[in-house]
Amino acid sequence: LRAQQQERLQRELDSAISFLEFTRQRTDTVLRASLREQVDVAMQMVQAIHARESQRHPPEVVKRLIIEALRPVRFYQGRGYYFIDDMQGRFILLPTAPQLEGRLLPDNQDDRGHMIMRGLVEAARLPDGQGFSSYRWYLPDKPNEMADKLAYVRYFAPFDWLIGAGDYTAPWEQQQQQAVLERLRAVRFGQSGVITVADHDGRLLMSSGR
C-alpha cells in the first residue's frame, strides 16, 4: 500500500511539474502573439494615413500625422505604447521620453551591455512575423531601474522607419503563474491528497487543501 501511495504521489507531482513547464514555455508564445497583434494594428493605421495623406501633403507633414496618431495609444494596462525609430538609430517617437525624439543614439545600451537600438534595427530587417528583440528598459514606476523586456518591430519602407511595441516579461510571467496556481488549487486525488506550492523562501503560495 505504501508503495502504491508513493507511486500515486509521484504521478501527481510529475503531472503538476509538466503543467508548470508547459505554462512557462507558453508565456513567451502568448506575449509574442500579442505584440505582433498590437504592431500589426499600428501598421494598418500607419499605412492608411500614409496612403491618404501623402497625396496631398509633403512627407514631413505625413510623418508628423503618423507620429501624433500613435503617440497617445496605450495598452497592457498602460505599460504598452508604440515607438518609432529610423534605421540609422534615431528616436522618432518615444512617448515615455519625448525629450529623446530626434536624437541619434545607435549605440544606446541596457544595464547588461546589450545594444538596444542595434538589436531593434536588426530585428526590423527580418521578415514580417520574426522581428523580435529582447533587451532591458527602464521601469515606469522606477525610472532608474531596468527590467527584461521583449519588443516586436516591423519595417515601414516609405520613411525607412521601424515601428514597434514591447512589454516587460515579468507581468506576463506573473499572470501565467496565477493561472497555474488556480489550476493546481482545484486538484484533488485519493481521499485527502492535495498539492502545496511554496516559494524558495518557504512562503506558502497555494494549497489545494484550503
Q: Could you walk me through the main structural features you see in this protein, from its secondary elements to its overall organization?
A:
This protein is an alpha+beta fold and 210 residues long. The chain is built from four helices and seven strands. Helices cover 43% and strands 22% of the residues. Helix 1 runs antiparallel to helix 2 (59-70) and helix 1 runs antiparallel to helix 4.
- How does the helix and strand content classify structurally? alpha+beta
Radius of gyration: 23 Å
Q: Give a count of the beta strands, DSSP E runs of length 2 or more.
A: 7
Q: What is the chains' assembly state?
A: single chain
Task: Kindly report how far apart the N and C termini lie.
Answer: 26 Å
Note the overall shape.
elongated
Largest sheet: 5 strands, antiparallel
* Mean pLDDT, all residues: 88
The helix-strand sequence is: HHEEHEEEHEE
Number of helices: 4
Strand residue percentage? 15-25%
Summarize the amount of helix as a percent range. Answer: 40-55%
Name the poorly predicted regions: none
Put the structure in a nutshell.
The protein has 210 residues and is an alpha+beta fold. Helices cover 43% and strands 22% of the residues.
List key phrases describing it.
single chain; 210 residues; 5-stranded antiparallel β-sheet; 4 helices; elongated
How would the blueprint of this fold be written?
Layout: H1 2-53, H2 59-70, E1 82-86, E2 91-93, H3 116-124, E3 132-139, E4 142-156, E5 161-168, H4 169-185, E6 196-198, E7 204-207
Antiparallel strand pairs: 1-2, 1-5, 3-4, 4-5, 6-7
Helix pairs in contact: 1-2, 1-4
